[in-house]
Amino acid sequence: MVRSVPPIASPPSASAASAVLMLLRACAGVAPASPPRLPSLLASPTTSRTSASAAAPPPASLARYCRFFQGRRSHDDARQISRWSKCAGLKGRWRNQLCGRIAAARSDGSGWDDATISPVIRQTLLHWAYELNEADWEAWRQR
Q1: Which of 4, 66, 133, 134 is most buried by its number of CB atoms within 10 A?
Q2: Which of 60, 97, 95 is nearest to 76 (CA)?
């Protein structure tokens, strides 16, 4: 018996294709061919597209991450790096809290990779793109 094949979905609309193209151009560092149709979420009604604030993408936009990966930096990077260091750096509050709690629980035979020890702190560190590894655990123990 031959089964019928469902119809192929229609191709994406032109506006969706142009949005994808605009994102790809932003990642490649190429200026868009035409200004986007939607106004910037951070721009006030009194600012124009040609102002200095319009030159920088919004803080959490894909374009900003692509440009950062390509080596472009902004005035806010030093503050963000400082925040990361205070959270998950060598003297970071949450990293040291986690290591201290693991050390207190090690009498039970649990190791540095035991996820039941401080799952909330581990999640906080994961939000900051840090996961405790054995080398960091050993370095903390020996200090």
Answers
A1: 66
A2: 60
Digitized pLDDT (tens) for each residue of the chain, 143 residues in all = 555 555 555 444 555 556 655 665 665 555 555 544 444 444 444 444 444 445 666 766 788 778 888 888 888 888 988 999 999 999 999 999 999 999 998 876 568 899 999 999 999 999 999 999 999 999 998 88
Distance CA 87, CA 124 (A): 9
Q: What span, in angstroms and rounded, lies between the C-alpha atoms of 131 and 125?
A: 6
Q: Using a cut of 0.70, tell me whether the model's pTM lies above it.
A: no
Q: Which residue ranges make up each domain of the chain?
A: 14-37+55-74, 77-142
At residue 141, what are phi and psi to the nearest 5 degrees?
-65, -35
Please state, in angstroms and as integers, the Cα–Cα distance from residue 60 to each residue in 16, 42, 65, 87, following that order: 21, 11, 8, 19
Task: Report d(CA 100, CA 65) in Å as an integer.
Answer: 33
How far is the C-alpha of 72 from the C-alpha of 57, rounded, in Å? 12
Q: Exposed, middle or buried by CB within 10 Å (0-12, 13-18, 19+), for 49?
A: exposed
